[in-house]
Amino acid sequence: MRKDKEIAIKLRKQGLSYSQIKNKLDIPKSTLSYWLRDIKLSKIAKEKILKRINNTSTKALIKRNKQQTVIAEERADKIRRCAIKEASTLINNKLFLVGISLYWAEGYKKGAYESKWKSVDFANSDSEMIIIMMEFFRKICKVKSEKIKIQIIAHKNVKVSRAINFWSSITNIPREQFIKTYCSINKNNKRKRKRNTLPNGTIHIRINDVKLFFRIIGWIEYLKNDAAL
User: Fold this and answer.
1) What is the mean pLDDT of residues 64-82?
2) Could you tell me if 190 and 59 are in contact, meaning their C-beta atoms sit under 8 angstroms apart?
3) What are the angstrom distances between the C-alpha of 177 and each of 3, 152, 201?
4) pLDDT at res. 189
5) What is the C-alpha to C-alpha distance for residues 131 and 170, in angstroms, rounded to an integer?
6) Which of 23, 26, 184, 225 is the most exposed place for a label (fewest CB within 10 A)?
7) Distance CA 120, CA 206 (A)
8) What is the Cα–Cα distance from 216 to 186, expressed in whole angstroms?
9) Which domains, from first to last, does the chain contain?
10) Residue-wise pLDDT tens digits, 101-152
């Protein structure tokens, strides 16, 4: 038997991969595959190979995730910068100005900073404000109604079915696009509420669109800079 083949068999039984043996002996993988195809590995050798494969896969996954994160951040930054420029052409539009101001005050923005969740979410209980924001999303953001989800946040004494009907008529969003209602508990007042000041609860207008989210963030950044002048 060739000396290099003996060494290759020995290394394989120690749990080395074909790539590791190839690098040590400078022998093509095709040759190693032929030489070592019938070699029976011990349990320890198999565990070493499996552990190395898992470690390699984990490192590759981490590397890929880091690359994807960098790409996502670059894409988000590009969307934001384009939106800042776009805002200068929209600033004289009253609906744009009111809508972006309201979102700046009441909308979800953490996704632009530390939070992983990056989606448009505006919450309020004022029906007139909700009407304006629905116009803003439809006319300025060009969001189609079927892309919009609604969730009601209500106290236990709110009649959910009536609240859904109320907000469905206000938003012109069908009931089937309403997410399951979340019933909150007022921890500061364990006694039964005598009078509910929010009979229809508070609603969240949710649009799962990362591009629109960063576009809105860019508009807000323009508004911040413009207001500071």
Assistant:
1) 81
2) no
3) 72, 12, 17
4) 52
5) 7
6) 26
7) 6
8) 32
9) 3-65 (no CATH), 90-228 (3.30.1330)
10) 999 999 999 988 878 889 999 999 999 999 999 999 999 999 999 999 999 9
- Reference 219, options 135, 70, 117, 102; nearest CA is 102
The tokens 């009907």 sit on which residue? 165
Q: Provide CB contacts within 8 A for 98, sequence distance 6+.
A: 132, 136
Cβ contact 185:214 at 8 Å: no
Report d(CA 155, CA 59) in Å as an integer.
Answer: 47
**Mean pLDDT to the nearest integer, 193-216:** 86
DSSP the chain: --HHHHHHHHHHHTT--HHHHHHHHT--HHHHHHHHTTPPPPHHHHHHHHHHHHHHHHHHHHHHHHHHHHHHHHHHHHHHHHHHHHHHHHTT-HHHHHHHHHHHHHB--GGGTT-S---EEEEES-HHHHHHHHHIIIIIS---GGGEEEEEEEETTS-HHHHHHHHHHHHT--GGGEEEEEEE--TT--SPPSS-S-TT-EEEEEE--HHHHHHHHHHHHHHHHHHH-
Nearest Cα residue to 202 out of 153, 134, 130, 151: 153
Q: What is the pLDDT of residue 191?
A: 52
What is the chain's Cα-based Rg? 30
Q: What is the dihedral of CA 109, 112, 117, 122, to 10 degrees?
A: 20
Q: Indicate the length of the chain as a whole number.
A: 229
Task: Give the residue with greater pLDDT, 99 vs 28.
Answer: 99
